[in-house]
Automatic annotation (TrEMBL), chain A:
WD repeat spans: 110-151, 152-193, 195-232, 242-282, 368-409, 410-451, 452-485
A Pfam family assignment: NLE
Subcellular location: Nucleus, Nucleolus
Main location: nucleus
Keywords, alphabetical: Notch signaling pathway, Nucleus, Repeat, WD repeat
Name the UniProt record assigns to this protein: Notchless protein homolog 1
Listed CDD domains: WD40
Gene3D superfamilies associated with the record: YVTN repeat-like/Quinoprotein amine dehydrogenase
Record keyword Signal present: no
A biological-process GO annotation: Notch signaling pathway
Domain NLE intervals: 19-76
Domain of life per record: Eukaryota
A GO cellular-component term linked to this record: nucleolus
From TrEMBL, chain B:
Protein name per its UniProtKB record: Ribosome biogenesis protein NSA2 homolog
Classification of source organism: Eukaryota, Metazoa, Chordata, Craniata, Vertebrata
CDD domains: NSA2
Assembly behavior: Component of the pre-66S ribosomal particle.
Organism expressing this protein natively: Cyprinus carpio carpio
Record function comment: Involved in the biogenesis of the 60S ribosomal subunit. May play a part in the quality control of pre-60S particles.
């Protein structure tokens, strides 16, 4: 190392150790050649260097061997006990350009449902909000005035799951009487025919991604009758029926590569080809029901062509022709997906989760243990770097999105945590639990940011709008609450 | 011809009286009035008994009429959606109300104290001593018969050491000692080979429990599983987990 000392009158001699670093990105590609920097360099200065080299004004996080550089490079090196003689690889990770502000207050409590609110979903652009409830109605809410907009009647039993089409023009809802309805959010009326065919209640609905088909025509639904049906919403009939599971199918995700992933209570996850409905793989390993699935590209598939960085205060509909939308969605999808394939994480009643690479191999990448009760929901962060898991043991655990390594545990709830939702910049997480509170967590600090009490009974559903402005939550107390900063 | 069939025989031979059916109809309709006349005019103990009997009869009649009526008006109930809406992830789970959890805990503690479990095989054939224990003759002239050998599978703990051979009354042969059992989880239908921690209760006799004899119906410890086969015949222990 080169010692640079300064002997000046009136100034103390400053010995600054210098070290050679090599900047690399997450996939291992090197950026430029090694250069030397003083050991007490801070992340801000490193960021300036990166910005200069990459010519992209994006905030970065820096890691030395998976340990984040927080205060200065020197302290990190010291902790790890690395030699300063060799070239040190420093990995940089771009963060989201925009910053989502944490929600802090409840701006309105929307009554109207006469039974518990079971599911809540923002449309992909964040313009509309829909909620399904036990009183068999689906209600649309106007977000600018925070008042009811439409009430969609038609179901004959509890509305168990709702799903927006990726272009935000249609909403599909499934009920306990195994019927699926399609609604138009602008008029609140039904589009097309009622889709019947399942024999038991609908557990999950998932649309085909926008970049595969910009018309948003196909919808996959799973039910307790152990089958998965792919519906053609334009013709109003069932296109394919995928059977193979022996117990209730709990979740389905339509991947961006044209593969369908389904999880079931028979402890397996099956991978199907969406084009012809052929089963490709069965992923086994869980010891009890598999409750939930999450894809690393979930967020980008949900938002389609909408880019959260370009969001405005008043959310707008998607504009452009079908081809333009498809292009945009495809570009966003490719950038998030990166080099490898999509990763899948599954949460189960056996208190563990598995991280899979389902497009390539049958064996799991990692087993994520640590929870002390069943895992109810798992979710990748929008930048796919982190995984959050909500469990009935009142805690939320954060894991690394690539390797599955355990990072952090967020404790604070006093009842089982039912659902979680990430903010669009992956810095904040909101969780709803049966103890009737919502909590906003700061991921970087690993601590509670804000506690949001207000519900009178258990919180069943939580959603963060894709533009990051609002959080909506609904629960057993029949009212829907909207929270803002 | 039997004594009591002369009326029927006459009817078969000669037919009914010409006005028989008319008279029968009228008599029956008169019966109602006569009954009510009697009920009004009766006095004394006879009346009390009669009214009591009649009251019971009337209650029964009302019940059957209501039952018949219910069948007609059943459609109204089907339209109403049941209360207690829960999201899909909670549907297959039984959510216990908070009040019930405490009482369940107390009940379970009481049951454990009393040594009673809900077992899949409630009634097992009791096995007598002659079946389970074989007499071993000892002594110079093979006359002494105080030793017994266990003929069924048994479990001895980890720190088991035999008593001095001269003094041990019960012999548990090494060939019949088992440490592991195949335990099936009834819901998942998965079977695991798990080590046995102890014998909780042998339904035939408490003596067998202390000896550690495992027969069909024994509750073995670990996580409380009940043995479902005859281990001495099969060479392995199959058990069902008690959940």
């Amino acid at each position: 190392y080169v010692r640079a000392s300064r002997a000046d009158s009136g100034r103390m001699s400053v010995d600054v150790e210098r070290v050679l670093i090599q900047l690399q990105d997450e996939t291992g590609e090197v950026l430029g050649s090694p250069f030397d920097v003083p050991l007490d360099i801070s992340p801000d200065k490193l960021q300036l260097v990166c910005n200069a080299l990459l010519q992209k004004p994006v905030p970065y996080l820096f890691f030395v061997k998976d340990a984040e550089v927080v205060s200065s490079l020197g302290s990190c090196v010291q902790e790890l006990g690395l030699e300063t003689e060799q070239v040190l690889p420093v990995v940089y990770q771009p963060q989201a350009v925009f910053r989502v502000r944490a929600v802090a207050r409840c701006t309105s409590s929307l009554e109207g449902h006469t039974e518990a609110v079971i599911s809540v979903a923002f449309s992909p652009t964040g313009k509309y909000l829909a909620s399904g409830s036990g009183d068999t109605t689906v209600r649309f809410w106007d977000l600018s005035t925070e008042t009811p907009h439409h009430t969609a009647r038609g179901h004959t039993h509890w509305v168990l799951s709702i799903a927006w089409s990726p272009d935000g023009k249609k909403l599909a809802s499934g009920c306990k009487n195994s019927q699926i309805f399609l609604w138009d959010p602008i008029t609140g009326s039904q589009i097309g025919k009622t889709l019947t065919g399942h024999t038991k209640w609908i557990t999950w609905l998932c649309w085909e991604p926008l970049h595969l088909n910009p018309e948003c025509r196909y919808l996959a639904s799973t039910s307790k009758d152990c089958s998965i049906r792919i519906w053609d919403t334009v013709l109003g009939r069932c296109d394919k029926i995928l059977t193979g599971h022996t117990h209730s199918v709990t979740c389905v995700k339509w991947g961006g590569d044209g593969l369908l992933y389904t999880s079931s209570q028979d402890r397996t996850i099956k991978v199907w080809r969406a084009k012809d409905g052929v089963q490709c793989r069965t992923l086994q390993g869980h010891a009890h029901w598999v409750n939930t699935l999450a894809l690393s590209t979930d967020y980008v598939l949900r938002t389609g062509a909408f880019e959260p960085a370009t969001a405005t205060i008043n959310p707008q509909d998607l504009t452009g022709s079908l081809d333009e939308i498809k292009e945009k969605a495809l570009k966003r999808y490719n950038s998030v997906r990166g080099e490898g394939h999509e990763r899948l994480v599954s949460g189960s009643d056996d208190f563990t989760m598995f991280l899979w690479n389902p497009a390539e191999e049958k064996k799991p990448v990692a087993r994520l243990t640590g929870h002390q009760a069943l895992v109810n929901e798992v979710l990748f962060s929008p930048d796919t770097r982190l995984i959050a898991s909500a469990s009935f043991d009142k805690s939320i655990k954060i894991w690394d999105g690539k390797t599955g390594k355990y990072l952090n545990s967020l404790r604070g709830h006093v009842g089982p945590v039912y659902q979680v939702a990430w903010s669009a910049d992956s810095r904040l997480l909101v969780s709803g639990s049966s103890d009737s509170t919502l909590k906003v967590w700061d991921i970087k600090k690993g601590k509670l940011n804000a506690d949001l009490p207000g519900h009178a009974d258990e919180v069943f559903a939580v959603d963060w709008s894709p533009d990051g402005q609002r959080v909506a939550s609904g629960g057993k107390d029949k009212c829907l609450r909207i929270w803002r900063k | 011809m039997p004594q009591n069939e002369h009326i029927e025989l006459h009817r078969k031979r000669h037919g009914y009286r010409l006005d028989h059916h008319e008279r029968k109809r009228k008599k029956e309709s008169r019966e109602v009035h006569e009954r009510s006349h009697k009920a009004r005019k009766m006095i004394g103990l006879k009346a009390k008994l009669y009214h009591k009997q009649r009251h019971a009869e009337k209650i029964q009649m009302k019940k059957t009429i209501k039952m018949h009526e219910q069948r007609k008006s059943k459609q109204k109930d089907d339209d109403k959606t049941p209360e207690g809406a829960v999201p899909a992830y909670l549907l297959d789970r039984e959510g216990q109300s908070r009040a019930k959890v405490l009482s369940n805990m107390i009940k379970q503690k009481r049951k454990e104290k009393a040594g009673k479990w809900e077992v899949p095989l409630p009634k097992v054939r009791a096995q007598g001593e002659t079946e389970v224990l074989k007499v071993i003759r000892t002594g110079k002239r093979q006359k002494k018969a105080w030793k017994r050998m266990v003929t069924k599978v048994c479990f001895v703990g980890d720190g088991f050491t035999r008593k001095p051979p001269k003094y041990e009354r019960f012999i548990r042969p090494m060939g019949l000692r088992f440490k592991k059992a195949h335990v099936t989880h009834p819901e998942l239908k998965a079977t695991f080979c798990l080590p046995i921690l102890g014998v909780k209760k042998n339904p035939s006799s408490s003596l067998y429990t202390t000896l550690g004899v495992i027969t069909k119906g024994t509750v073995i410890w670990g996580k409380y599983a009940q043995v479902t086969n005859n281990p001495e015949n099969d060479g392995c222990i199959n058990a069902v987990l008690l959940v």
